[in-house]
Amino acid sequence: MKTKSLIAIGTFSFLMFGCAHQMDQDAKVEERIDALLKQMTLEEKIGQMYQLHSNGNVADYKELIKAGKIGSFLNEINPTTINELQRIAMEESRLKIPILFARDVIHGFKTIFPIPLGQAATWNPLIVEEGGRVAAVEATEVGIRWTFAPMLDVTRDPRWGRIAESLGEDPYLASVLGAAMVKGFQGDDLSEPTSMAACMKHYAGYGFVEGGRDYNTTIIPEVVLREVVLPPFKAAVDAGVATAMSSFNEINGVPSTGNSFLLKKVLRDEWNFKGFVVSDWASVAEMIVHGYCADEKEAAMKAVNAGLDMEMVSPLFSKHLDSLVKEGKVSIKTIDEAVRNILRVKFKLGLFDNPYVKIPQTSKIYADSHLAAAKEAAIQSAVLLKNENHVLPLTEKVKTIAIIGPLADAPSDQLGTWVLDGDKNYTQTPLKAIQAEYGKKLNIIYEQTLGYSRDINTTNFGKAVAAARRADVVLMFLGEESILSGEARCRADINLPGVQSQLVEEVKKAGKPIVLIIMAGRPLTIEKEVNLSDAVLYAWHPGTMGGPAIADLLFGKAVPSGKLPVTFPKTVGQIPIYYNHKNTGRPPHENLQLIGSIPPGAKQLTMGYVSYYLDAGAEPLFPFGYGLSYTTFEYSNLQLSKTDLKKKDEITISCQLKNTGKYEADEIVQLYIRDRVGSLTRPVKELKGFQRIHLKPQESKTVSFTLKTDDLAFWNAELKKVVEPGDFDVWIGPNSKDGLKGSFRVTE
Ligand code: BGC
Q1: What's the pTM value of the predicted model, to 2 decimals?
Q2: Using the 8-state DSSP alphabet, how is residue 218 labeled?
Q3: Which of 29, 225, 381, 710 has the most CB atoms at less than 10 Å from its CB?
């Protein structure tokens, strides 16, 4: 007892000391900023607020840097150039303020991890954090100290190309994983040379663009904004994210880049964010195109007065802030605040003391440990959607396999979107990985059949079918090329592109088991192809090590464990479709009358008047949280620590999880609640917790979650976050559809 309390006191005083030390450090930074601000001219201040795209030619920037007119560069990745640009700032400019170098390092610098949506399918914050860490270690090696990630835009629309960069549709999952990514990029201490400032983006609402069309308008009621859109950003702020990026879109008529509600009220006043906010690429200038500002000067004024600190690429701040201040339209206090925010991040990064990149003796780029981490991420991100008759994993009985399709050996496409620096020559494709590992034991027939995913040339279909006839199992690698998802890569039709679907139909004629491996940047509407296949493994764009990861999964060296971070629609007409929807006054029931069963001449009043589509029903193809394993898991014995809670109480919800199959494997156990009645209606389910549990065959574990009543709170009509007394349902289960159900009551 005594020792314990001594340790407790020790820990406490250490924490207090740590806290005091941090406060001391922070105060020192503010003092240094004060001292600098006192010396800076208005021109030099405005210079800090300008970020330029580097063309690599130092001479073009020399005079500007000397005059203190550039705060940051994006897209310079040559360390020698970076050091030379920095040298000019540190030696030839009046105040020697270092430049901050930025780049979109989204899911890896050179070693590419699965796209963020794939990483989200791991439901594993440790994997996501490691992905961020590896990216930071590699990118800082060339001098990048600021990345424009994580993208925290919750989205419910797979037509939107940028869903690939997102962490899915759920605010809680995106919050947990987004915070982990921030931690990974920034490390324990921002001033470490391998730490990279993170940038939460796109603040805010960008994932809600109408019709899933990039840059489009958003209309988001404030309760939805606060409940669905903002939580991941809040979580990132709590995790210490250094910077934020305003989004391209307007929300309810106001572009984010000029939105003081977002940039000041929420971000600064409510969340106490201490970093700085950069615009998106020319999004200050785009406020004119939006029809929100008459000219460049007004755009600069509205952006800075709304709380934007740094302008990316468009030069409106540098052109107009000076006269705006002189005319009294922008206060010097506003400028000082913006510059303070920017300098604070530069100080925290240690750039004033260590401005240069030191090229290490041994490079970590593509280090074995990085490749191993990328492989593990790809393994955990793959989602097994179907596995009839245990066709997977492939067994010894399989002697001949046919590998068919445009994505079996597509080193660039499997890397996915936002790969500015990853080298496809380092990519390990599934074809190469399977040939290397199993080429001696198996007869492998490869028919690419289609040159790329959109190819419509069916000339080689005959060869594909012939290969399938000779094989025991057919592995079809289909999906989307990397260029079909990401920024400005939206699709109105999210079927498999080209003639891939017809290819599945043809190959099916060979009568052999078909395993579909899909690589894509979004959910695709693959109901037909799923029905034609025996097994389906959704691999997203899995990155550099996708090949060996998929090979391990197919041959049972690894067991699939990923779960969908987003609902898969059957057809595009169901979008938006998401698990945490409202119930409506007429929720669908199980016996829906579908279009084919309506008798000719049926009278209007003979049919069920509930909320569904005649041609697509009400259910998605696969629900949020869904994913199979090679083993089976049994959920039993749901226990609630209490069924009556007072406000401020905690409740523990637990169940027994047993691995009832033959494979040692992970299961992602999910906790959902439903607030049955609210002063504003509540979703039918809300994710409140998840855990990745590892079990050996026949092993059982108790899985428990603790919820505080605060976790049950929601934003009411007065825009207050409240817990309302009443009845709650709770589920622990393997996805958002299934699970063990209990209930409890909250009273005042
Ligand atoms: C994108 C951002 C990106 C920026 C800089 C923009 O087009 O929307 O996500 O960080 O460019 O490359």
Answers
A1: 0.97
A2: B
A3: 381
For ligand 1, atom 4: residue with the closest CA: 281
Q: Are 468 and 507 in contact (CB under 8 A)?
A: yes
Residue corresponding to tokens 């040159």 = 451
For the chain, list the domains and their CATH numbers: 47-348 (3.20.20.300), 379-554 (3.40.50.1700), 633-747 (2.60.40.10)
Label each residue of 95-127 as H, E or C: CCCCCEEEECCCCCCCCCCCCHHHHHCCCCHHH
Whether 110 is in the pocket of ligand 1, judged by its Cβ within 6 Å, is: no
Question: What's the gap in Å between 279 CA and the centre of ligand 1?
Answer: 9
Identify the H or E element spanning 20.
helix 2-39
**Pocket lining: 201 vs ligand 1, CB cutoff 6 Å:** yes
Query: Is 280 a catalytic site residue?
Result: yes
Confidence band of 169 (pLDDT split at 50, 70, 90): very high
Q: Could you give the CA distance from residue 9 to residue 217 in angstroms, rounded to a whole number?
A: 54
Convert the pLDDT of each residue in 606-616 to its tens digit.
678 999 999 99
Ligand 1 geometric centre to CA of 178 (Å) = 18
CB atoms within 10 A of CB 63: 11
Quick: pLDDT tens for 77-98.
999 999 999 999 999 999 999 9
Structure tokens belonging to residue 564: 């969908």
Is the CB–ligand 1 distance for residue 455 below 6 Å?
no
- Cβ neighbours of residue 578 closer than 8 Å, sequence gap 6 or more: 156, 169, 566, 567, 624
CA Rg, the chain, in Å?
Answer: 27
Q: Which of 146, 199, 310, 487 to mutate to test the pocket of ligand 1 (most atoms within 8 A of CB)?
A: 487
Closest of 40, 98, 99, 45 to residue 304, by C-alpha: 45
* Residue from 148, 200, 284 whose mutation best tests the ligand 1 pocket (most atoms within 8 A of CB): 148
Q: What backbone phi and psi angles, to 5 degrees, belong to 343?
A: -65, -35
CA-closest residue to ligand 1 atom 5? 281
Q: Is the CB of 280 under 6 A from ligand 1?
A: yes
For ligand 1, atom 2: residue with the closest CA: 280
Q: Collapsing DSSP states into helix, strand and coil, what is residue 52?
A: strand
Cα pseudo-dihedral 337, 153, 383, 504, rounded to 10: -140
- The DSSP secondary structure of 573-601, one letter per residue, reads GG-S--TT----SS---SS---GGGSPTT
Residue 636, strand partner residues? 656
- Does residue 19 or residue 456 have the better pLDDT? 456
Contacts of 649 (CB under 8 A, 6+ apart): 642, 708, 709
Ligand 1 centroid distance, CA of 110 (Å): 19
| Element at 503 (helix H, strand E) | helix 500-508
Is the predicted pLDDT of residue 15 greater than 60, yes or no?
A: no
In the chain, % of residues over pLDDT 90:
95
Q: End-to-end distance of the chain based on CA atoms, in angstroms?
A: 37
Render pLDDT for 502-551 as a digit per residue (tens, 0 to 9).
999 999 999 999 999 999 999 999 999 999 999 999 999 999 999 999 99
- Which of 104, 153, 280, 409 is an active site residue? 280
Distance of CA 128 from the midpoint of ligand 1 (Å): 21
Confidence of residue 605 (pLDDT cuts 50, 70, 90): confident
Pocket of ligand 1 contains residue 487 by CB under 6 Å: yes
CA distance 134 to 119: 14
Q: Are 642 and 651 in contact (CB under 8 A)?
A: yes
